[in-house]
Specification:
This protein has a 5-stranded parallel sheet, sandwiched between helices. The longest helix has 17 residues. The N and C termini lie close together (about 10 Å). By secondary structure, it is of the alpha/beta class. Helix 1 crosses helix 9 and helix 4 runs parallel beside helix 5.
């Protein structure tokens, strides 16, 4: 099973991806997580991405596409994967199509979590406060100003990815503002038909 989860930052893609991983035994390929790991490990690609990520901007396509292509080849992705945070642009979606085609693979579904963007900033502020209350470090991209920059980038660049997949008959839209368990059930219902 190969899936893409679409939606703006803070829509719950990561939460739903983790539930899909647990239920279906496939891996979550989060570009954000992969890039943060590269930054933590001080890899060359991580060092290139660090300054861009700290500013709340998106890293270049060549970095992200290279990470995704290499990651899909790893043994734990053979059974399937969930892409979370990729593709962010139509150019990346087209590059992903090429990568999958070269590898003899195809997507099973693209699920978009639709959310009220005005409520997302409140959701992020709440998530940051809860993280801090647990004594954990707050992610840089959970800072409200950085989040607003990321949301603007999503609206400018990524919102066009959903129509791209809709035109290919792969897009399913789910209300991401519903309670987490309801969103999980809606996704499960969709996956029973693919």
């Amino acid at each position: 099973m190969r899936l893409i989860l679409l939606g703006p930052p803070g829509a719950g893609k990561g939460t739903q991806a983790q539930r899909l991983v647990a239920r279906h035994g496939i891996v979550q390929l989060s570009t954000g997580d992969m890039l943060r790991e590269a930054v933590r490990n001080g890899t060359p690609i991580g060092l290139r991405a660090k300054a861009v990520m700290d500013a709340g901007q998106l890293v270049s396509d060549d970095i992200v596409i290279g990470i995704i292509s290499d990651r899909i080849d790893q043994p734990d992705a053979a059974k399937g994967f969930i892409l979370d945070g990729f593709p962010r642009t139509v150019a990346q979606a087209e590059a992903l199509d090429s990568i999958l085609n070269e590898k003899g693979l195809k997507l099973d579904a693209v699920i978009e979590l639709k959310v009220d963007q005005d409520k997302l900033v409140h959701r992020i502020i709440q998530r940051a406060a809860e993280t801090a209350a647990r004594g954990e470090p707050v992610r840089k991209d959970d800072d409200p100003e950085v989040f607003k920059t990321r949301l603007e980038a999503f609206n400018r660049d990524t919102a066009v990815v959903a129509p791209y997949y809709s035109g290919r008959g792969l897009l399913v839209v789910i209300d991401g503002m519903k309670p987490i368990d309801d969103v999980t059930k809606a996704i499960s219902d969709v996956l029973e038909t693919v």
